[in-house]
Design a protein that fits this description.
The chain is an alpha/beta fold. It has 16 helices and 13 strands. It folds into two domains: 21-144, no CATH class; 150-426, TIM Barrel (Alpha-Beta Barrel). Helix content is 35%, strand content 14%. It starts with 20 loop residues before the first helix and ends in a 30-residue tail after the last helix. Bound molecules: iron/sulfur cluster. Iron/sulfur cluster is lined by residues 183, 185, 191-192, 195, 197, 242-243.
Length: 456
């Protein structure tokens, strides 16, 4: 494999940015991991680090990015500071996603979700009219942003903005329909400890975003109609939101979410790949999704380790239980077909304090055991990179104890990429459907690099 140049000062440096020991250490870490994981795309290593650490933007970069497609806060905050601590309106100006490329490494175009963190060693800045990212004085890559799509400028007949009802991510590929903005796993005894869905709802409403708890079906249809008329990039939709442990508007979880799928498929039959994120429900309930036209089912298991699942997912543990959750995931193969059962886990929470693994190798070994268990049965889990959100219980608890809940080490995330790629290859599984093209330089999935490491 051709080695790319290491990060060293002396080329493409910027004199305006202070270069501290922190930046130097981060660049050395990137260089070391690139050597150790030379079989992984270098782009994926930087992408994982941007996801776990976040990025800050200087004033000019925020003004620049505010002219492009900005963060829609499509479900969670995915930021590392609360809005109340964003002194420069980053919540309104930071881009939803960036596509970095070039630089000394000659990076292939790589799409990554933006997580605001004013303390990040990575910074967005503008030079010669071009947005770029750097680490201290080291310039790393050029950045392309997605222009505001026409549908983001449109409103529904009742005045609701299309981007609130049906925001898109993955460079316009996925319409993200969070039709229920809260979760009935509520409070410290039930909500998943890494999750800020309910707190994010509160902070967004307080900040003036037109969040509503439930999106009416007819508004979703109207928004999709506008997107369908104006965009050919959208290829899939995800119906999602919090868990419904009792009923919502008199409906069970399956009935509630299936009603949206049915309405979409009746109005736009087979137009997009339909996906639903829901609990691992009993088989009769799962069938309601399939019968409504859903292709891909995401019954997320969050973390593999048994002890950590019980600690980090207390609601899922008490309402369903880990072994039953897993049994239902496997049972879903008979309903959707194995390749269409794609449970998510949140990569990194197995290293959260105070209960998680402290050794990245042990954390990867545990997670790989789960990958092997699912993949040997034809089910392909995927993952998102954990963002320690300040309003999530995991972070708030540590803060109350006077500690910092940082992200999992980059070594863990890079090792996991290799483990996921190798386990996927070992079991000869297909490219997961509903994520767009695979491979470095092509992948659109922006909240982890699992699609970037599939070899094509
Ligand atoms: S089930 Fe857990 S992760 Fe999902 S929205 Fe509810 S609290 Fe968050």
């Amino acid at each position: 494999m051709t080695r790319r140049p290491r990060y060293t000062l002396g080329m493409s440096t910027r004199s305006t940015e202070p270069h501290t020991q922190l930046h130097e250490e981060r660049l050395a870490l990137l260089a070391r991991l690139e050597d150790e994981f030379a079989d992984l795309p270098a782009e994926a290593i930087l992408k994982e680090d941007l996801l776990r650490t976040g990025i800050s933007f200087d004033d000019e970069a925020l003004l620049f990015s505010g002219e492009f497609k900005t963060k829609s806060y499509f479900i969670f905050s995915f930021d590392m500071v609360p809005i109340s601590e964003m002194t420069r309106d980053e919540n309104l100006r930071a881009p939803e996603e960036m596509r970095f490329s070039g630089g000394d490494h000659g990076y292939r175009p790589t799409t990554v979700s933006v997580r605001v963190n004013p303390a990040s060693p990575y910074r967005g800045f503008v030079r010669d009219g071009q947005l770029r990212i750097g680490c201290g004085a080291r310039e790393l890559a050029d950045v392309e942003l997605l222009p505001v799509p026409e549908y983001y400028l449109r409103t529904l007949e009742n005045g609701q903005p299309v981007h609130e009802v049906a925001p898109t991510i993955e460079w316009g590929y996925l319409m993200y329909l969070t039709v229920y903005r809260k979760c009935q796993y509520f409070g410290f005894q039930e909500e998943c400890r890494f999750c800020d869905i309910n707190e994010n709802y509160r902070q967004q409403v307080k900040a003036g975003r037109p969040y509503r708890t439930v999106k009416p079906v007819d508004e979703v249809l109207e928004a999709l109609s506008i997107i369908g008329e104006t965009s050919s990039a959208a290829k899939a939709y995800t119906l999602t939101g919090g868990s419904i442990t009792r009923t919502l508007k008199g409906e069970s979880e399956a009935d509630f979410y299936a009603a949206y799928a049915r309405a979409i498929e009746e109005k736009f039959p087979g137009r997009w790949i339909g996906k639903v994120v829901a609990q691992a429900l009993p088989e009769d309930e799962q069938k309601k999704f399939r019968d409504a036209g859903i292709q891909v089912y995401h019954p997320n298991y969050e973390v593999w380790d048994e002890r950590l699942f019980e600690i980090l997912c207390p609601g899922k543990t008490s309402y369903v239980g880990r072994s039953e959750w897993h049994r239902r995931i496997i049972a879903a193969r008979d309903i959707f077909g194995a390749e269409n059962v794609i449970p998510n886990f949140v990569a990194g929470i197995e290293m959260s304090k105070p209960h998680g693994f402290t050794d990245p190798k042990e954390a990867i070994a545990s997670t790989t055991e789960g990958l092997d268990w699912f993949m040997s049965q034809g089910v392909c889990p995927r993952f998102t990179v954990w963002c320690p959100e300040p309003l999530s219980p995991l972070v708030m608890e540590r803060e109350a104890a006077g500690e910092v809940q940082g992200p999992a080490p980059l070594e863990y995330h890079v090792g996991l990429l290799r483990a996921w790629r190798d386990t996927h290859k070992k079991h000869g599984l297909p490219v997961p459907p509903g994520y767009g093209p695979p491979g470095a330089g092509n992948a659109l999935f922006s909240v982890s690099s699992f699609m970037d490491v599939i070899e094509v």
